[in-house]
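Hi W.,

Here's what went into the run:
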Amino acid sequence: MSPMAVRLAGISKAYPGAIALDEVSLGLAAGSVLAILGPSGCGKTTCLRLIAGFERPDAGTVEIDGRRVASPSSMVPPERRRVGLVFQDLALFPHLTARQNVAYGIRRGPDATVRTDELLELVGLTADGDRLPHELSGGMQQRVALARALAPRPSVLLLDEPFSSLDQAMRTQLRGEVRQILREARQSAIFVTHDQAEALTVADRVAVMNRGRILQVAAPEIVYAEPATPFVATFIGVSNLVAADVMAGIATTRFGAVRLIGTPAGQVAGHALCLLRPEHFNIEEAPDGAASSGSWEVIDRRFSGSEILLELRAGDGERLWVEAGSRVRHLGLGDRVTVRLRDVETIAFMRRSSGGHGGGQVPAQGGLPLAELVPPGRGDGIGESLASSPPWRAS
Amino acid sequence: MTSLPGLRARRAVPSHRPPLGLVLLAAVVAALAVVPLIHLGLRVVDGGVESLQPLLRPRTVELLISTLVLGLAVTAGAVGLGLPLAWLTTRTDLPARRAWSILAVAPMAIPSYLLAFSFVAALAPRGWLAELLAPLGITATPSSYGFGGAAMVLTLTTAPYVVISVRAALARLDPAADEAARSLGRGPWAAARVAVMPVILPALGAGALVACLYAISDFGAVSILRYDTLATAIYSQYRLSFDRSAASALALLLLLMALSLVWAEGRVRRRAALQVPHGARRAPRVVSLGRWRWPALGLCAALTVLSLVVPSVTIASWLASGLRRAPQLWDALDALRDSLLLASAVALLALVVAVPLSWLLTHVPGRTSSATERLLYGIYAIPGISLALALVSLTLNVAPVLYQTLFALILAVALRFLIQSVGALRGPWLQISPHTREAARSLGERPLGVLRTITLPLLKPGLLAGFAVVFLSTLKELPLTLLLAPAGFSTLATDLWDSAREAFYGQAAVPATLLLLISFLSVALLMRRGDVQA
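Here's what came out:
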């Protein structure tokens, strides 16, 4: 295992009247990029501020490069932590030129000018070094902020919603540039965002947070395919949580049986919600006039250029998001389709009270309070916050 | 997007509790202002029926009435002048509109007693204006200044407050609201009633109340023009008859009048604040004055002559005759030295207190902040003469060591002008997001280094403006200096007041000239700060 650039262990932090962080543990491997993803107010910015040294934890410790920098009783001040910060509002020094902003954190010496030039070139601002921040465009300001934070060669770079003030096109472009710069410099970095596309495309690993807790830390593909909790499943991508009965590693849904990923046969059984993504289905146009029991009505249609998503409603009121394949792209509202599940593997969330059989129809999506739903095997002793995939997965 | 990074919307930093030191500082400021006033009240009440006696004299009722009448007349005059001036300088094709819009508010920088003095001097026998008017058969005597003179001088001084307030409202006015009313079938007048009046009226009310407050609190102009109000009576009771309980009772009365006005002003202002502009606004239509531009120009010119040209010419003429007698120049230099000493000390003290307080107001929103803000407004509204008398009384009775010391004077004047200093720093503080300092910390700078390399450079314009505005205000300050200054300490303002009272106009030439220069510097500063815009 590679050495840790940053390690949070059991961090809790409360503000008067609210808990911001609840026993958060998190590690960042040196040279990698981690995204902390969550809705606003989930505590992700507080995480960054704790690492940077602007907040003191109530419990737990923070280590940077193996050195303890914060605990409830000791604090290394921000200026001695070797942490680079890019703020959401950039916080450029408005009275200093771009070059002076970048040079601010570089120790004075013969190499200072060389290093400043190097960074300005890295972010493509060699020609604009003598301009003041307010004379630069939004994207240029962003680059200055990045170069300034990288200049002192920090152990870790922290970025707080770094692209949120830019328009869509600029955001996509800068996202790619930043990713490349970080990769080339092998710079350890943590960035915070509420934009899942940003987290999934830029980061090596994604930590999903909600209400001060970390729900899952994993590679983007794993977070998408094998979310640890129903919250993660619905927060990332479009998802259908469909009622199912689980037995022997197979979930039986209204669409038929689905294999569950890596389930040791017979270990768990009972009612569950099965995660089915839009691309897990094949759609066919229903035969003329066949409002038969098996057909679904198209009630919404979302076109996004490369793909089309359809929302369907069954006769019993259940709703489902599916991807429309090339043969059914012409379908519109009111058309009827039949739905067939592809041969896929997925995961399911067991209901806590697995004893109560025959409890009637389980609402497919959104009808259950999420607190009632826990990943199976919660009792294994593996903390939810450290889970990288459903714990029943064969290891 | 080219706005300064620090001005973007930012997430509130979670800790909203102000640091204890700042709460203590605000409490000390509050105590400094409130304790003397409470002491004043207690003295009046403690004396029992006897000390309330002065309040029941017919003379007191007369004073109360004369003060109120002056307040009402000045308010009416300020509204009558300010409203058309505000409209003419923003919404019409008045020739040289930009110049007039500066000239229309410039008189607020000239102290009322200087204007009063220049009229008295100009109309005195052999005064330039008297000689100009004599062939027309018009003669003026000091007795005829009285009410008319005081009302005119104070109207000229206070009209700019109405202009500024109404002009801000006119700038907020959305032409689309008027057009919406028209499109819904209203005629031009009915549309104006719906779309224009609700925005203009609160602004007009706020401006009018400031003018009224100024008029009833004014001490210098009314005493030079020999019109008796509560303010002049307080001074003469105290200074001439040494009847402190009578003076205290009158000071309390004046204070109560002022505070009820401030209360009313606060209510009006809150209503004015409800008019929130939204959406993109187009530039307002410009009204073509046509033939009316001549009377409009006449109005602007007349006002400028009265409020700016008369004092300048008068003082220039007295200077020309006064300078021939050199010794007075040296007297004036003494006063100048004392003035500069006082003003620098006051401006510095106010700045030292204002830096943390303005940080509190801009960076820690909450109850402490809004209470501090109200406190600062309240202090500024206390009539100078009431505050002065309260401080005299407090120092005499409780802390004789401080009575008529330079220290007490500096403290009192700094307290009075604190809000100006805070106002100058507010803008620069708003530019410094907490993140700016955190960014510097994370780049390896210690807290003191951040102060030196980031915070102070960014605050510098505000520090300079805050120092300058309090410095200039202190140079012009009269009642506090008059009552609290140590024996032998005289400023330009008190020198001018003394010689004007004794009608030694030649002696007043040098201090008046210097004060006029200081006033013009104040105008320049107002313009640079953007309070006065075309």
